[in-house]
Every structure is written in structure tokens, then in C-alpha cells.
Amino acid sequence: MPELAEVETVARGLRPLAGRRIVAVRFGKTDFIDHPERIEALLPGSRLVEVRRHGKLLLLAFDREPAAAKAAPALPGARFWLVVHLGMTGQLVLHEAACPPARHTHVWFSLDDGRELRYTDIRRFGHLRLASPEELAVLVAPLGAEPLELSEAEFRRRLGSRRARVKALLLDQHVLRGLGNIYADESLWRARLHPMRCGSDLTAEELDRLWRAVRAVLREAIRHGGTSISDYVNALGRPGSYQKRLRVYGRAGRRCPRCHAAKIERIVVAGRGSHFCPRCQRAGRSAGSGSPRQVRVAAGKKLPRSLGPG
Ligand SMILES: [Zn+2]
């Protein structure tokens, strides 16, 4: 499933489209889209001005045509955002218009240069919506800090003050935004921390190690175009290659690439399969209590479906 590194790769692939105008929008299935009629009314004639990533969200800013303002007075102002969450299997890929559409293509954005941006999603757990700048601010307000932007001190404060398991904290989109199961496991292995340790039991040195590990893993994954285990492809339809460099994720039973002595194990923490080396990542005191299967993510405000941990 697309996490921060994959969404960042897609965003980078879409940025060269800034300045292009949308000339038409077509839909297939729309049950995962908020107000498709709003998209149909507003996007044609609008110009893409900016592409951002916010956690796992893709944000495309458009400036609308004056004529479209009358068609959809619900969105005041000239600027609006197309908010895309790729869910499990969503793909946003640029195609030549003549290229036959893949199965499960549900949205076609025709561009003024003759190409099409197509949204494809086998499982339709993705989400699309339009938002005014004010609506976008409300939508992203509950999200935590950007892992590649927050300081060591802020990271220590956010994770070190919490009783929850460190794996759950890394996945909690209120704490950090954009991390998912793959990069959480890879970061914990790199930092030599057991996924069951509690945030508040980690020393300052351990938290700093984890901060550095998260950044190193994400930067490396972005450099390799993300991880393509099942469906993920970039904006040009090409897979990433970080799956070849995963050290623990999906490697249960194989030898740890650091100590070469122990085999990678898989346990369930916070409801998610967690991969770790029992030799490099010692459980410690705080990880001891309770069976791993009973551990849950610390209760928090529920996120809208499109922003959930995933
Ligand atoms: Zn090891």
C-alpha cells in the first residue's frame, strides 16, 4: 500500500504537469469519490498550479476558470484542491490518450496537451475529493508531524511522552503523518528497537536513533522510487525498487542482514504484522507484558476514512 515514499514519488512525477489545463473529466465508478458532480463542474478549464504531498495525501492545487465559478458557487475563490488518497491499490498515472485504459480505471482527467491522467483502483479503498483552502485546512488539521521535517527534539517529545507501543506510535497518523507498516518496521530494525517497546520507556538516545532511522529509511526509499510489493507504480506507471532493499519487512524466517545470526520474526503489534530481529532488537522490560495479539493502538480521535493509518 502506498506510504509516504510512494506518494512522494507520485507527487514528484506529477509536478512537471504544473501549468497544464484540464479540458475534460470522465468517471467510471464513483463510490469512492466525494461529490463527483463538483469535480465535473469545477475541474474542466482549471489549471494545475501546484502538487504537494501531505503525509499519504496527494494534493493538487488548481486555479479555476471564471466561468466555472458560476457552475459551482459552493466553492468560493479561485483556488481549490483535488485531494487524493491512494488507499490500498490506487494509481494516478499519466497516459497518452490513445493508450487503451487499464481495467479498474475510474477517473480520466484529459489534459490540454492531449495526454490523460488516469486514476485506477482495483479495490477502491482510495478516496478523491475537492476542497477549498479552508476545507483542506480542516481536513489535515488532525494529522501529526511530517517525519522528514520535524526536529529531533519534537520527535522525542511526540513519542517519548506516550505509553503506547513504539510501533503503534509510528503508525498513528496523529503522531507522525505518512508512515505505514513497511517503513515503521524498517525504521525500528535500523534503530535496533523492538516494536513492543513503549514510547515513554525509550531513552533520549534511543529516540534520537529512531528519529535518524526514520529519516534515513524514508530518504532511501524515496531515492529508490518507493516500494512495489503489489500494485504501486509511479506517475509514469513504473514500479519502485525499494522492495529489493527491505531488511525485515516481509522477510520472516530469513536471516537478519545485520547480525547474520538470528532469523527475522513476525508478531502482531497494534493489529499489524511486525517484522524484527530478536537478536538486534531486544524486547526489554516495557515490551514484556501481555500477549502481542492483545496489543492495540492507543485510542485516539478517529480520523476520516481518507486519512486513516492504512
Ligand atoms: Zn539481527
What report would you give on this structure?
A hairpin with a 2-residue loop joins strand 9 and strand 10. The strands form 3 sheets. The chain has a 4-stranded antiparallel beta sheet, covered by helices on one side. The protein has a 4-stranded antiparallel beta sheet with strand order 2-3-4-8, with helices on both faces. The protein is of the alpha+beta class. The chain contains 8 helices and 10 strands. Mean pLDDT is 91; it is low at 289-302. Helix content is 25%, strand content 21%. It folds into 2 domains: 4-140, Alpha-Beta Barrel (N-terminal domain of MutM-like DNA repair proteins), CATH 3.20.190.10; 152-307, Helicase, Ruva Protein, domain 3, CATH 1.10.8.50. It binds zinc ion. Zinc ion is lined by residues 256, 258-259, 262, 277, 279-280.
Measured by DSSP, the beta-strand proportion falls in 15-25%
**Secondary structure tally, helices:** 8
Give helix % range. Answer: 25-40%
Largest sheet: 4 strands, antiparallel
Structural class: alpha+beta
Question: Which CATH class of the largest domain applies here?
Answer: Mainly Alpha
Number of domains: 2
The sequence of SSEs as H and E is HEHEEHEEEEEHHHHHEE
Overall mean pLDDT: 91
Q: Please give the radius of gyration in angstroms.
A: 21 Å
